User: What shape does this take?
Amino acid sequence: MSGGPNRRVMRHAAFWLATMVLSYLMQLPAHFLAGARLYVGGILFVQTPAALLTIYPLLYGVLPRLLRGQFGLIMLLLLAWVPASVLVVDVLRMLYDLGPAAWFGEPVPATFDWSNYQDLGFAWFVLLVMAGAASTLKLLNHWNEQQRLGQELQQRKLHAELQLLKAQLQPPFLFDTLGTLRTLTGRKSPEAPGAVLHLAELLRYLPYASAREAGPLADEADMLRHYVALEALRLGPRIDVSLHFSGDLTAARIAPLLLLPLVENAFRHGAGPAHECPWVSIDLVAKPHSLVVKVINSRVADAANWQEGPGLRTLRARLARLYPGRHSLKLVAEPDTFLATLHLRAARPPEPPAKPLPTRNAAAEAFRKAVSSPPPPR
Assistant: This one.
């Protein structure tokens, strides 16, 4: 941070030095070809001071009003700036003739009359060119800064949306899952160790997913498997769950946690206590240049008019930013079913392979092997 102001001062100093050198070089052809006098003193004592006194008020007093859309005020300020800049240039020309001109061997007027300086001299036209160049650089710098801030804001917003998805998922889901684990362990069910593994895998993936922009579709599919397995354990045999993946899941890439709101919505609204025979069907097809996801769940016939919740609204916003013009999300609410269909075309451009998930330690691996092996005969 300490180097910021210093770099800014250096940029301004380089700009003014470049204008002085350029003004000097422009005089050399006429000097060598026609013997014209070099206008060195005027650059040092008229042109550069006049530019400093008039351009900085233009850049930091007038242009900010333009950027804020205050067009009426900026017209008044420009109308005042033009005669003020003429006055500054003429005063500096007169002061230069009173003293510094003689130092550079330039002719000095015998008598000084203010009327001789009340005109638009060459130095003022040079000032206009410099003011235009400085204003253009200022506007370009402002545009680049706005672009950078816009991209940074978009990245922060996407990260915040991922954090919101995790926050929406974790509290109710964790409470329900922990309640299921308590029930399973209380009756010493053989399904309890598997439920613990599913929960561990899911919680291990969530922080890792939110730290990247895209990842293999296979990782998202594994996450959905763990989520569906836990929901099936929680709801028990009263719900019929169908989960089907097809296609090359390792080749396709997708934004993290993009499919979870559809699955979460299906279990939240399709497996409530009012459903007699709840069911959820999830079908994912990965094609070379597209991805199709269909999620269907049961729905109570006399349910009130359906409206999109915050999870689906957030999903629509993410799709609009991540896949503009390359996605289609259709939600169809029938009297007894609800269908969500998501099409992604050219899901993500090719990216470097994602970093592997954090490896488990030896104890976790031993625990997995112990759980996956069949229990010894009694």
Summary: The first helix runs from residue 3 to 34.
